[in-house]
Amino acid sequence: MAKRREVFGTNIIPPTPPKSFFQLMWEALQDVTLIVLMVAAGVSLLLALYSKYFGGEHSSGDESEGEVSWIEGVAILCAVLVVVLVTATNDWQKEKQFRGLQDKIESDHKMSVLRDGDITEVLVGDIVVGDICLVKYGK
Fold first, then answer.
1. Which residues on neighbouring strands pair with residue 110, listed in sequence order?
2. Which residues cross the membrane (predicted)?
3. How far apart are CA 124 and CA 109, in angstroms?
4. Fewer CB atoms < 10 Å away: N or C end of the chain?
5. pTM of the model
6. Which of 90, 89, 48 is CA-nearest to residue 70?
C-alpha cells in the first residue's frame, strides 16, 4: 500500500485556495447597481467641487449650501462601502461553512473495496491504484 501511495499519490483532490477578503470585495464591486451608484457619487462630488470653486456667486440666499454639498457624494460612497463590506463578509462566511461541510463529508465517506482478496470499508482518500471499488445500488 505504501509503495502504491508513493508511486501514484493519494486519492485526494487538493482543495482550491480560498478567496481572500479583498477578492470577495472586488467581486462585490462588480455589481452594476454599485457601479452606477459610484458614478453618481463621483458626479455629485465633481459638481459640488465645481460649484464651490468655479460656480461664482450663489443665487440663493443660503451661503452654507455650497460648502456642504459634497456630503451627498460622500454619503453615497459610504453606502456603497457598507454594501460591499456586508456582501464580502457574507460570502466569506458562506465559503468557510462550505469548506467545513466539504471536509466533513470527505472525512466521513467510506467505500467498499476489494483489496488483497478481502472486502473492506476504507475512506475514499485511502483508495489506491489496484483497489477494486464495489459500487452498490443506492449508495
1. 123
2. 32-50, 70-89
3. 6
4. C
5. 0.69
6. 48
